[in-house]
Amino acid sequence: MRTTDAEVHAERARSDPTKDLDDVVHQRVRLGILTVVHEARRVDFNYLKSTLGLTGGNLSQHLRILEDARFVAIEKVIEGRRPRTWVSITRSGRRALHQEIGSLKAIVNRVEGPAIDD
Amino acid sequence: MTWPSLSYKLVWMDSAADAGAALDGVSRARARTRLFRSGHGFASLVFGIVILGALPFYVWSTPAVRAHCHSLGRGSLSCVGVFVSRRAGTPAPLLGRAFEAQPFASLGGWSTLYWAIAIVVGFAVVVAYYHLRARRVGVQGRLWPAVVVGFGVLGLAMWVNDNSSAEPADFWLRGTSVLVVIALGLLVLSALERSRPFLVFALGFFGLALLSSLYDVVNLFQRLGIGAPFRNGDNALPNLILPGAYLVIGGLVFLFAQDWRLDVHAQLVRTTS
Fold first, then answer.
1. pLDDT digits (tens, 9 = 90+) for A83-102
2. Structural domain of residue A73, as residue ranges?
3. Residue A78 counted as domain residue
4. ipTM value
5. Contact at 8 Å (CB) between B87 and B257?
6. Distance from CA of B30 to the nearest CA of A (A)
7. Residue A74 φ then ψ, to 5°
8. How many domains, in total, are found in chain A?
9. Could you tell me which chain A residue has the CA closest to the CA of B195?
10. Residues B89-114: pLDDT tens digits?
11. Is residue B74 part of a domain?
């Protein structure tokens, strides 16, 4: 039986990868934060600030959202009489990041992939 | 191309451009963090120095020959020459015989003590370097799995060597199987740091570690025309010089490459800001 274009569209709509995008992770800065902390055991607040080109206040806001979603853990310590903030990714944060990147790749593949009736 | 597929693509175009830009950003942030985090060049350098530091323990002494003679009568003697190892008086092997230099090495018995201290100090120095570097640059990598694997393999090698009756004797014979322990630690480090060039380098070192444990590298040196300095008591040294020099030179190359890439990165940041 031949599949019609309408059926293909319906199927694609059902498997819409944008539906898998999590608003907490999809935001550009928060995606950057999760990507950076995923690459290390933990990352310093100032390193995140300089890598992502953010102000301290802006970064704090995004970190709070990620911490509330339990995607990152924040540890405040005193090192050499100076306060220091270390950020690490949690297991659910790692899972959310992988899902986000998978969805982004799926979207790109949709456009770069072969057309239906070529 | 038919209209339905074209319209379908147009619907997706905006989100795809957005997704592509996001993925580019992810790649850049990932590359930068890996660059700041990595310390494998220093680890290679440290373990290369550790290996080269063992050289004095692998210099063979000229074995003393003690002759035992007895008279056969009518002025003739029957003598038996006995090679006497100079190992007497040196400590019992701490890490099992696997890491003991060959029997005639003048400090052979001490080699196990050297490896016991040097491996622990080597790992401690690398851990300290990662810790200090993390404090300086603000990125702390994962290192403990490499240390755990290193000591785990060390313990396993000791246990197999001391308890197995079917041990691969040839593998332990040259007393350089500790190189395989270092190689496995470096392979785990390459996986932790997700560095393909370092993985290739660590695999190369693993090959050299096996070669040094199973083959007299001095033969290779002689074939290459560089074997002249290694005669008599220095025969065993190429088995350490080759892997040690490989790690030292490779470690320096990785360190310089990292410095250069950090400089380039800093310049890029200055020009774009």
1. 999 999 999 999 999 888 88
2. 19-107
3. yes
4. 0.70
5. no
6. 6
7. -115, 130
8. 1
9. A39
10. 454 555 555 566 555 555 556 777 78
11. no
